[in-house]
Amino acid sequence: MSTTAIDVHAGHHDHPKGVLPWIMRWVTTTNHKDIGTLYLIFALLMFFIGGLMALVIRAELFQPGLQFVQPEFFNSMTTVHAIIMIFGGIMPAFAGFANWMVPMMIGAPDMALPRLNNWSFWLLPFATGLLILTFFMPGGAPAAGWTLYPPLSLQTGAALPFSIFAIHLLGLSSIMASINIIVTIMNLRAPGMSLMKMPMFVWTWLITAYLMLLAMPVLAGAVTMLLTDQFFGTSFFTASGGGDPVMYQHIFWFFGHPEVYIIILPAFGIVSQVIPAFSRKPLFGYAAMVYATASIAFLSLIVWAHHMFTVGMPLAGQLFFMLTTMLIAIPTGVKVFNWTATMWRGSLSFETPMLFALAFLFLFTIGGFSGLMLAIVPADFQYHDSYFVVAHFHYVLVPGALFGAFAGAYYWLPKWTGHMYDERLGKWHFWLSVIFVNLTFFPQHFLGLAGMPRRIPDYAVQFADFNMISSIGAFGFGLAQLVFVWVVIKAVRGGPKAPDNPWEGAEGLEWTVPSPAPHHTFDTPPVIK
Amino acid sequence: MSYVMAPAHGNDERRPGEAPGADERRARARRNAVLLAVLAAAFYVGFIVLGAVKGLF
């Protein structure tokens, strides 16, 4: 095996002298690894900003009554927390993984459109910055929930056009990133790498990118119509002008439900890399996993109205959306079965990436099951807009998507930094996270079933105990993430030298290049047999 | 998946009947990107038109 073709430019642009050249090196970079790093750092920052907003929410809900913030500000917290976490945190985090890993995993020298890649990233800080600045505008930040349902969202003050512009920029960034990922995977694969030889992470990102391409313009269309309703006299969603507010909900959720899978499918991909590596076995049922991922993506486009059962719809509509939603359990079940079967009789070891992947497997499944409960129309009438829904989607997003991201970060950190991370601290991070995430979100199931509505700053005293537990869990979870930051800083600054492939059972092209990965890899494509 | 790291054939020189070269693949990627951008734009405009048409009736 020759590696001469891949490290000839190692460290080529790594150490510019002076502050301004250093800044310009990052602002103007078109290297996929640099841009991947920018995405990951940005996402981490946004996780902490969105996390602080979550802690404001949980501090307020620690006890009944109004403690710290006014209800309007509380509503802004829930709204902006969601938008920041989704568009600034989890999506850029997975875009960072895609930038770093997809070209290396398919044997490509870079993304197909490097300058577009740079622009995709650099739109993000301005968009999220604009969104955060709306807190200082007359009337405050948007407070109608991340769904921005009219007519409530049209009562937003000066922040409305700015937040809509921010959403447009975030959507544009996502669309450009998705186009780049699709054309990279479809055109720059190494000779011999057929679609069905691609690593599962690449497959999940290819499907995710198509979902983004179809879903994000729909969100942009919806918020454009909100904008024209507010400022240009149209009545798309204004009942007094002959418009239909419910149409907004349909259009929003036509974006919103695929968005859930845009968030979770890359995590599925990471888990599909990590579990085989630490089971020392190939992924069980590779083809079935690919088809299951594609099936989930297709079904995600035809289930949107299960978010709107209580709005009212014909019985046939209720049945259609209930049954198609339940159908998603089948390909999802295939994936959970295959991950489990991969581990069956494997030579398992439990390093931090595997621990996070296992926690993902158990806890995401809890989120999936509560999703099935919510899909049942008559039951949904009870659960809708309650804390049960909050518990459900946080189980999908936090121990689901976020734990998937942690699994990937620990798995590839040696390749990114060239150093092994501190396994002991990694395990501390894992155990603290897994304990506190359950302490935070599991009691919310009980709160919802008992009738506590979501998006309220005050509540009846009967909900006090579980809210207190949930708030303690949230603060513990937030503090636990500082351990992760410390692990990353330690690995960047030094530590034991990572070999090319630090994991005994890991397979794939990325493990054939040195650690840290050189600035340019696969200038000459490898041959895949 | 088995793979080797040896260069495919010299410095990416193209041979008859083999995979297209890097330049051609990048050009194809750019063409595909334009098509995908048109698809995204069509979705954006399409949903706004849908909203307008529904309002008309």
Helix-strand blueprint:
The complex is a heterodimer of chains A (529) and B (57).
Chain A lengths: L18 H9 L4 H29 L10 H36 L7 H20 L25 H29 L12 H32 L13 H35 L6 H15 L14 H13 L1 H15 L8 H24 L1 H7 L3 H31 L5 H27 L14 H30 L32 E3 L1
Chain B lengths: L2 E5 L14 H35 L1
Describe this structure in words.
The complex is a heterodimer of chains A (529) and B (57). Chain A has one domain: Up-down Bundle (Cytochrome C Oxidase, Chain A). Chain A is 67% helix and 1% strand. Chain A is built from 15 helices and 1 strand. The longest helix of chain A is centred in the first third of the chain and has 36 residues. With 57 residues, chain B is mainly alpha-helical. Chain B is 61% helix and 9% strand. Chain B is built from 1 helix and 1 strand. Chain B is rod-shaped. At the A-B interface, helix 5, helix 6, helix 7 and strand 1 of A face strand 1 and helix 1 of B.
What string gives the helices and strands of chain A in order? Answer: HHHHHHHHHHHHHHHE
Strand residue percentage of chain A: under 5%
- Average pLDDT figure of chain B: 76
Note the beta-strand portion of chain B.
Answer: 5-15%
Uncertain residue segments of chain A: 1-12
Number of helices of chain B: 1
Which shape of chain A, going by the Cα principal axes?
globular
Number of helices of chain A: 15
Query: For the record, what CATH class of chain A applies?
Result: Mainly Alpha
User: Do you know the CATH topology of chain A?
Assistant: Cytochrome C Oxidase, Chain A
- Multimeric status of the protein: heterodimer
Chains forming the largest contact: A-B, 53 and 36 residues
Structure classification of chain A: mainly alpha
Rounded Rg of chain B: 21 Å
- Overall number of structural domains of chain A: 1
In N-to-C order, the SSE pattern of chain B is EH
Quick structural summary:
Chain A is mainly alpha-helical.
List its traits.
heterodimer, A: 529 residues, mainly alpha, 15 helices, B: 57 residues, 1 helix
